Amino acid sequence: MVSQVSNHPAGILGGGGAALYVLFIGLPVLALLVRAAQQSDFLDAVTSDAALTALRLSLLTSIISMAVVVLLGTPFAYLLARNDRLWARVVDSLVELPLVLPPVVAGVAMLMAFGRNGLIGSELESIGLTIPFTTTAVVFAQIFVASPFFIRSAKLGFQSVAKDYEDIAQTLGVSPWRTFFRITLPLAAPAMFTGLGLAWARALSEFGATMMFAGNLTGETQTMPLAIMSAMETSLDGALALSVILLAGSILGLVLLGLLTRRRWQGRL
Question: Model-level pTM?
């Protein structure tokens, strides 16, 4: 069966396309690693105060962002998965808007909403809440651009769980809350883990919306992508070091995501 596929014209073209894709993706990554290894002060750049400060800020804000996304996005995704009304379909379409909206436009839009002269920014400032150009703005930007990845995956995961399971459990006297946590949530978990991994990677790499809405303040709003941009202006070694750190984090996230989803699926088979 495998040989038939490989000898098929589409299979041959697919193999060629796969080779070109791996080369296209792998070559820049390899070039980054080789160039970074050639730097004499690479370790110093990795452990510099600027690098560690940006890394801590990126990890802190992305963890907070993912906690908010999971807590609010999980019931939201379940509602969309179990509701087929017109308003639900409209809201479902709006969920994907941040995916197609340029990040810079997203940052400007958030500034127009939460800025000093924004729609609700002045009211927030009157009660002592200032969001733009603060660490909170970084979290806001990350949630805005990353939440669709989790909500979309979680919704698909909930849709894959037959509603008959929930109905049978409730006819046996199991409460809706217990049914959700004991049946629905575990079955939808693989898709949710996938969405969470994609959302976290997107939040960690967010640049445009953060730059426009939070600025580039060292120690307060300068995340890893912004620190790379700043380092490119003064030191290529520093930019390479930060890039390698982000690359390592992305690879580690993919590995952990693969292990988690594989175990979940194996447990269901």
Answer: 0.85
